[in-house]
Amino acid sequence: MKLWGGRFSKKTAEMADDFNASISFDSRLYRQDIQGSIAHARMLALQGIILPVEAEEIVRGLLSIQEDIEAGKLEFSVTAEDVHMNIETFLIQRIGETGKKLHTARSRNDQVALDIRLYLRSEAEIISGLLIELMTALRDLAHEHVDTVMPGYTHLQKAQPISLAHHLLAYFEMLRRDWERLKDAVKRMDYMPLGSGALAGSGFPIDREVVRQELGFEHLTRNSLDAVSDRDFVLEFMSFGAILMVHLSRLSEEIILWATDEFGFIELDDAFSTGSSIMPQKKNPDMAELVRGKTGRVYGNLMSLLTTMKGLPLAYNKDMQEDKEPLFDSVDTLKKCLAIYTPMLRSARFNVDRMYRGAARGFTNATDLADYLVTKGMAFRDSHSVVGQIVAWCLEREKSLEEMTLAEFRGFSPLIDQDIYGEIKLKACVEKRSLYGGTAPEAIKQALEEADHFLQKAAAIIAG
Ligand code: ARG
After folding, report:
1. 142-171 tens-digit pLDDT
2. Which residue, among 290, 291, 180, 296, has the nearest Cα to 236 in the 3D structure?
3. More exposed terminus of the chain, fewer Cβ within 10 Å: N or C?
4. For the segment 37-76, what is each residue's pLDDT rounded down to a tens digit?
5. Residues labelled catalytic
6. Is 22's C-beta closer than 6 angstroms to any atom of ligand 1?
7. 149 with 426: CB under 8 angstroms?
8. How far is the CA of 111 from the centre of ligand 1 (A)?
9. Of the candidates 370, 403, 405, 402, which has an alpha carbon nearest to the alpha carbon of residue 387?
10. Domain membership of residue 283 as a residue range
């Protein structure tokens, strides 16, 4: 008979069991479920609701079940529906009557709310560590490439010369915000829901505080209805994940572009590239492409749960069982993407010469010529127009600005002197942008110090 079979006179249809069951995916919560049950049983004994020997029996039973699950000795069943009832059923099979007392003052609704929180809290810790590893790789690469000049782009058209370090540190900043977003989301996960019962709380004199401490939560949920029907913390995590994937996907897009023959800015290591089954010459950036591709499923998972939740009346509804597959998929995907990214980046080779040559073409120093005319007294709108004419003139003759003679420059404006050549050197263009947040080596040095400081602080937080 089912744990809830008392009021039924007929068996559930087999197909209804199959449709209803979540065990095929929520079995991954078995450890959290057992951890929560142990805390609950101990508290029941402490409060005199069950006997201490009964609690001990339950705890021993649960621990032996955990061992057997881990040894692959137990098989979950669809008839027992979900991880909670599977474990409870094992317990009753194993220790008999006492096992039937575990579910006193508890519902699967507060139980599942607890399990997901426990699960997500520990996954968030792993993801946070993986993020820091990736950020550390970006920081290290930036250190190496402070003086590497590359073209910066807008509209994917060459814009101004920048340092490769500056480009890499832009991603560092994005990931830093992601890391903070995750940390912030974890704060709102840190509420212990047991004691909410099915929806209305419990009439038993249980002690929620003891359970909270035992499970290491910062707070108690404040409203039993909310506690069993809230999945904001899952949505928040998935939003964090979606935004993180925006960033990884954009970086991937750049790596894919940079690895083309047309750009030639980067060469990925053989260990993180793949070949073609027909074209012998091919070396494809599949890892970056897959990260870009997997972004879709992480967005989709968020959208799926947002949609599931939007029309639900309080409190628990079975619809909410649909939270798990998208959540688990997002967790798995984020972990895999972050894990592959760090070694892929660290082993990549940046083609410093190609980058420099890329910056030397396409008039990336045109703004500096216009700025130069401003320092000589011309209004910026006018200098913009003069330099526009110079660029058009050069394009016709296939010349760069530095290849113009002084006489040719002066044909456009008598304000231009010999010192122009120093001003439009790529290195000078980069070096003069030394304001806080800029691309000059001086500004980058400060950015790197701040990055180091952040990483040290984050490491200390992770180490606890
Ligand atoms: N498997 C269910 C879920 O994941 C557990 C909670 C079920 N509660 C209930 N009243 N049917 O949502």
Report:
1. 999 999 999 999 999 999 999 999 999 999
2. 180
3. C
4. 999 999 999 999 999 999 999 999 999 999 999 999 999 9
5. 155, 276
6. yes
7. yes
8. 9
9. 370
10. 109-203+222-357
